[in-house]
Amino acid sequence: MSETTNAAEVAAPHRYTAALAADIEAHWQDFWEAEGTYAAPNPKGDLAGDPTAVARPKKFIMDMFPYPSGAGLHVGHPLGFIATDVYARYQRMTGHNVLHTLGFDAFGLPAEQYAVQTGTHPRVSTEANIVNMRRQLRRLGLGHDQRRSIETIDPAYYKWTQWIFLQIFNSWYDPETDAARPIDTLVAQFEAGTRPTPDGRPWAGLSPIERANILGEYRLAYASDAPVNWCPGLGTVLANEEVTAEGRSERGNYPVFKAKLRQWNMRITAYADRLLRDLDQLDWPEAIKLQQRNWIGRSEGARVDFPVGDEKITVFTTRQDTLFGATYMVLAPEHPLIAGADNGAGSIVPDAWPKGTHDVWTGGHATPAEAVAAYRKQAASKSDVERQAEAKDKTGVFTGVYATNPVSGEQVPVFIADYVLMGYGTGAIMAVPAHDTRDFAFARAFELPMRCVVEPSDGRGSDPSTWDDAFASYDAKIINSSGGTISLDGLGVTAAKAKITEWLAAQGIGEGTVNFRLRDWLFSRQRYWGEPFPIVYDEDGVAHALPESMLPLELPEVEDYSPRTFDADDADTQPETPLSRNEDWVNVELDLGDGVRRYRRETNTMPNWAGSCWYEMRYLDPNNPDKLVDPDVEQYWMGPREGQPHGGVDLYVGGAEHAVLHLLYARFWSKVLYDLGHVSSAEPFHKLYNQGMIQAYVYRDARGIAVPAAEVEEHEGGVFYYEGGKVSRLLGKMGKSLKNAVTPDEICAEYGADTLRLYEMAMGPLDVSRPWDTRAVVGQYRLLQRLWRNVVDEASGEVTVVDTEPDEATLRALHKAIDGVTQDMANLRFNTAIAKVTELNNHLTKTGGPIPRAVAEQLVLLIAPLAPHIAEELWRKLGHTTTVVHADFPVADPAYVVDETVTCVVQIKGKVKARLEVAPSISEADLEATALAEPAVVAALNGAGIRKVIVRAPKLVNIVPA
Description:
By secondary structure, the chain is an alpha+beta fold. Strand 8 and strand 9 form a beta hairpin.
């Protein structure tokens, strides 16, 4: 602090300074906490409260769950937290019962990796991080109901995460009711014989293992042997969404391979149609809805069987109208019909190449088995994303077998290629190279035939050998498509699809069907720091759910927290979980209702997404020991109502990076719980808002290494130097590793929390990313200093307002600000709200005299949601004994909002010739007459005729002379 500043503070001991701000902020934060100012009453239960408050309209406002990082917060993190706090405060002041709280999504890989490095238990480091983060958030003056704050690592919380898992495990999706039902209802159908078992034997005649396997095909949570993304470098399996486009782990950037492992899955695919359908009634950004629709990937088409000897290859296609043009087939390398090729068991792959096999089809291998085995190994090293990427060179190999095209009867070769995925459709495609770009490129690479069956409309002719690319169009006529008892010639695509689908069904070789890109959710992780599965296995390997009385199943102590990791490039490895090392915990004797028996616990843990799939529900009723949430409490805060047919949180704010993972998973869990009658809301979040990112400049030296941004010097010409060396500058993320992080603690110490809040909200529109500039923070600091001076004498500390009536100019400035700020607050336009408050404050400053009390109080109320500490202090100084938090937000007087006159511009040939002061309500006819009579306009026209007059009342008249 400078000597000049010190001298000024001596002369003005009651000036608003960082030190005074710190005292004010600490005082009111303590007050709010002691008084329970932000406690939102429930209609019943241990958090029930004032019936008058409960009777108000409710608002449930949420931030996306933060992870308690060891690095603490930088100024980019609180952007959304401050925004929801401002909005929540505004809603309280407009008569709402507002639930706003914040918990911590505390399971996760960083704490486990820290434990591996230091030996510190993940709980110890995580809880220490939470304490620090709570301190930082409290300093910002966030109005959270702390009674409702939760941590996913608390056994009292994850008891209910485990309970929800068991509800899903003990449920199946009934297509007839289009909803989940208890698994007991399915068992009852098998027992009664109304639903036959797969082989027709009676249910009573099946062994426990056989029954368990059948039910596993229906359960919404099930274990299966399936291709997974195995990351040896991390020692764990990853969901598709956790693998980058380069086929590497999102965390750590390790190679990811395909492997077949037994894993837990969630049957989210059963809800695909509902997840799509219900998006329409959610108030979400269209970009997020589009990402979810694309991820779910609904497509209508047909299932078609291609005979292969005694077997058949089933394909799903959306272009069944082009069946006559299918000249080869491609299977995924993992397809079960060839999966046994490595050992010769259960595979259609022959011992030798058929006579006349093209050399280019064999990959240079002596036998089909060698070719298939080599290609399968090559494909296993690629991620699904890599395999689907448009590659210049198409790869694949002939399997040595031919299938029969069911409509033409022709023999078509069967290939395997990595661009076909086992996880989509049936893992097999019919290739129509003349009308599919990827098939066209593959056919050219492998010298495969093509047949034109959709008449080109671009004049290229019908001989594909002369084409440069495929002709893919829905707006065309079918040709060359007749054979046997079916002809599609002359039909349009839509009619041809309908006709061939009907024919396939009649022949018993296919049917119309719907397919989805969405895959079931891989729900197992080979980690320590996650929720244990409430599942045990008997001696036959049958999975059993733990009874609710045994929940929570708590994490045991282990000597080594790390999963066993391997050479990052070693695909031939298997996971080994940390929990498996505690044999006393793994092997137990339990009585599950049929006597004491020996069991083995599941040693995988749930993914870090589990706890955030339902946390909004626990915020409602965090201490309930008997229920996930009391139904009446859930109905009050989240139940369906007008404009929200599926219920949900009123406002959910977070980053767009969660468009698929978290949001899709949470929607799935909500729908299951809704179907089973546990909640009234079928959707978790009615309104979603994605805030932008606070960015910062990253400076790198000649080696590409980030250098401390605070120590970089800018020289003439926009050149930057660090310790004498030239560095580059690029706008990007803010973070500790990039050495450009600014902490909120630093800004609070320098200016106060209210200044930080105002600056972050004033930087630009909330949904747009913006660069941080510490030098610009002082602008909002000065706004607060001027506000303080307009109410408080800096020398004496006394209030300077007067009990006089404001003049009309001040009333107009005040009510225009109230009107504008009210609209901005309701629509999350906090940057423009601050601009309007600044404009009003500047108007009052320029008047030069004491401010009327009525105006000062309204000004304080206007800024209260944005800068609550200074507002609370000024509110008390103005003589109020109750908190400003629950004061009424100002209401604009319409008489003062509308200007008495507005300026109308009159143009001739686009050039301004006059400005008129007119009434805002003037009609277009009167405005035209007034403009044409204006002497300056008459002179400018100089007797010329008028061809046209364009009037936009009340602000523009444009005259076009003849």
